[in-house]
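User: Structure please.
Assistant: Input sequence and predicted structure:
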Amino acid sequence: MDFVNALGPRLFGQDYLPLAPVRKPGSGPAMEVIQLKKSHPHHVAERIHALLHEGKVAVRDRESEALRPAEPRDVAVLCLTHKNCAKYAEALRALELPVRLAESDRWASPVVQAATFALRLATDPRDRHAALCVATLGPMALPLDKALRLLARGEELAAPELDALASLHAAGCGMTIERLRGEVLRVTGLRAWCDRLDYPAQMRATMPELGTIENKQAASLAGLAPIARQSSQWKGKSFIRGGRANVRQALYMPALVAARFNADLKAKYQQLTAAGKPAKIAIMRKLVVTANALLKADRCWQQSIACSSRIL
């Protein structure tokens, strides 16, 4: 913090406002400088990977205030352009580290929307629109038509979560943004609700682009598109790389279930297994491609019924 406050006036002049720490200081080094002649994303990615896996770096948890080993979600890479961010993201994904690029399409996630409107309601309990969005998008899952009828009749949306958010308004004036965010997640149960979501809902929350992109793009974003290894006449074994690891985690168990109980996918799984190919990855890719196609067509999945053509 002293270093930042010393550097700030040199960068911003008299407009710089000194920062004050909001957490207890840690015991480890505050900064590490890597000197590179040119921008080499893979060097930075390898160092980040080493720091995370050595287990020597500890951070103070925002919610519990307790020290814990650093995790990928604690790391932020700041770049001047989105193109540079994409290069660093690719280098980190190559090392199987989860990466999220800060993009506007994150707003498409209902989980993000519910959390945002919950924060708005905590800062202004009179915001009826925020209350409506929290009630219909969040854990309450109040039907939109019912909520609109209540508001049209001048009635309040009664729910413990909304009352808890309103009670935070008076206390929230003395809280930091991070503390208020933690309290909002706690009183509304948004974090626990997100963890309880079924796998398809988690995948949609983590991959809001579904339904707006092509099938190949969906497979690539999930890190399930096969990458060929070949040079001239030599051809190696294809592999997957990068993409969103949390999406693949959300797809793993549904893929196992589908490979066992869905007739079409079971036959495909057995065929690929017999050929010595990565069958689980293929089934996961099929699920995400199917989800993308259904959302784009705005229709529900229907099981195909096998018809017997045997003549008695």
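The chain has 14 helices and four strands.
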